[in-house]
Amino acid sequence: MNATSTSELMNTLGSQAKAASALMAKAGAATKVKALRELARLLRASVEPLQVENAKDLERARAAGLAEPMVDRLKLTPKVLETCAEGCEQLAAMADIIGEISGMKQMPSGIRVGQMRVPIGVFGMIYESRPNVTIEAASLSIKSGNACILRGGSEAIDSNRALAALVQQALVTAGLPADAVQLVPTTDRAAVGQLITMPQYVDVIIPRGGKGLIERISAEAKVPVIKHLDGNCHTYVDDPCDIAMAVKVADNAKTQKYSPCNATESLLVARGVAAEFLPKIGAVYAAKGVEMRGCPEALAILAGVPGARTQAATEQDWCAEYLAPIVSVKLVDGVDEAIAHINRFSSHHTDAILTTDHMHAQRFLREVDSASVMVNASTRFADGFEYGLGAEIGISTDKFHARGPVGVEGLTSLKYVVLGEGEVRG
Question: pTM value?
Answer without folding.
Answer: 0.88
